[in-house]
Design a protein that fits this description.
Layout (H helix, E strand, L loop, with lengths): L1 H5 L8 E4 H7 L2 H8 L3 E5 L2 E4 L5 E4 L8 H15 L1
Parallel strand pairs: 1-2
Antiparallel strand pairs: 3-4
């Protein structure tokens, strides 16, 4: 994804980072580190898996997401970008 965005060669194209979606693929902290300043907006949602591939959306802190997973990588990103 990083290379895809970089191929546009403009700061006008970036990532709308969806925390809930990357929880499904795993390692949200690594996605933040890899995408870095390409992240333009963040969508925070929470969910928990049901049987099979289904999930249910929840109010934050009632599912799988913890701010501990995201706090440090985002702090590093903010300090780097600003």
């Amino acid at each position: 994804m990083r290379e895809f965005i970089d191929n546009f060669n403009t700061s006008q194209v970036g990532v709308y980072f969806d925390v809930g979606n990357v929880l499904l693929t795993g390692y949200p902290d690594q996605w933040i580190r890899i995408l870095g300043s390409r992240i333009k907006r963040v969508h925070i949602k929470d969910f928990k898996p049901l049987l099979g591939m289904r999930t249910v959306l929840l109010i934050y802190s009632k599912g799988m997401l913890t701010l501990k997973q995201l706090n440090r990588p985002f702090q590093k990103l903010i300090m780097t970008v600003t």
